[in-house]
Design brief:
Blueprint (H helix, E strand, L loop, with lengths): L9 E6 L5 E6 L11 E2 L2 H11 L9 H6 L1 E11 L2 E6 L11 E5 L8 H20 L8 H17 L6 H9 L9 H5 L5 H7 L6 H8 L7 H12 L4 H25 L12
Antiparallel strand pairs: 1-2, 1-5, 2-3, 4-5, 4-6
Helix pairs in contact: 1-5, 3-5
Length: 271
């Protein structure tokens, strides 16, 4: 009878409702418990690599990161959000393939993944103390206590903590009331900017054509133009002249009437 292998060679993972990947089956069920076992997908691996890059100036060791994970590549799509992945020896930092990363948590307290969490916390604390002028230096214990308090709240709600969330909590940690340069550089969109995003772009020629399009004028302009179109050119001046002439004529007639003897009105003849 062939001896069973103690090496984790493959896994079957599924996409959860939280858009994270979780392990369903493993080739080594003796040592690995798949209950709540999470795995980092290729997109999250790339994001983590970006987050640890600034920590290189504060003692980040890439080998500690690599040792904390077991690399897998996609082997077969099983459908229904399930994928079979196969173990590889490629580096997460140097490989051109899209790799999954399973945290090595066989020893949860003293294993490689636990060492990585501690290593990243120390590097992050060094960076924050360098960036901010705290009244008292930030300590590793303070950061760990605050993160652990948030995780315990999730546990009390019955939520499983994904390994990516554990790492992100450390790599994104900033004390309350502070923000890093990365946060300041992120442009904030106003409501007007968000509305403008939904509008199509118009080039200069189209914009000029729209300005000259009479069909797009306001109603008030249309009413004014209609009133003007009903009157022939020069009518306003002619009417004013006629009015003035009539007024002068009427004045003259009144003056003449005053000089003439007044006549009585003729009587209507009787039938």
């Amino acid at each position: 009878m062939a001896k069973a292998s103690n090496i984790l060679e493959w896994c079957i993972v599924r996409l959860g409702e939280d858009t994270n990947w979780w392990v369903d089956e493993v080739s080594d069920p003796i040592r690995w418990d798949v209950d709540g076992l999470s795995i980092v997908d290729p997109r999250q691996v790339s994001h983590l690599i970006e987050l640890v890059e600034p920590l290189r100036d504060y003692g980040f060791d890439q080998d500690v990161f690599e040792a904390a994970f077991i690399s897998f590549r996609i082997d077969k799509d099983l459908g229904n959000g399930r994928v079979r992945i196969k173990r590889v020896k490629d580096s997460l930092f140097d490989s051109d393939e899209k790799l999954f990363a399973l945290p090595d948590i066989l020893d949860e307290e003293n294993g490689p993944f636990a060492d990585l969490l501690d290593h990243l916390t120390r590097c992050r604390v060094k960076m924050l103390n360098d960036l901010f002028d705290f009244e008292t230096k930030l300590t590793v214990d303070e950061v760990e206590d605050e993160i652990r308090e948030e995780q315990n709240a999730s546990f009390m709600e019955g939520k499983a903590i994904h390994c990516f969330e554990e790492l992100s909590a450390i790599l994104d940690y900033v004390p309350a009331g502070y923000e890093t340069d990365d946060d300041e550089e992120r442009p904030s969109k106003s409501v007007e900017d968000e509305d403008d995003d939904d509008l199509p772009d118009i080039d200069e020629d189209e914009e000029e054509a729209l300005k000259n399009d009479s069909s797009l004028k306001w109603d008030e302009d249309d009413e004014d133009s209609d009133d003007d179109s009903e009157k022939p050119e020069g009518d306003d001046d002619d009417e004013d002249d006629e009015d003035s002439d009539e007024e002068s004529d009427s004045d003259d007639d009144e003056d003449d009437d005053d000089d003439r003897p007044k006549k009585s009105a003729p009587k209507r003849k009787k039938r």
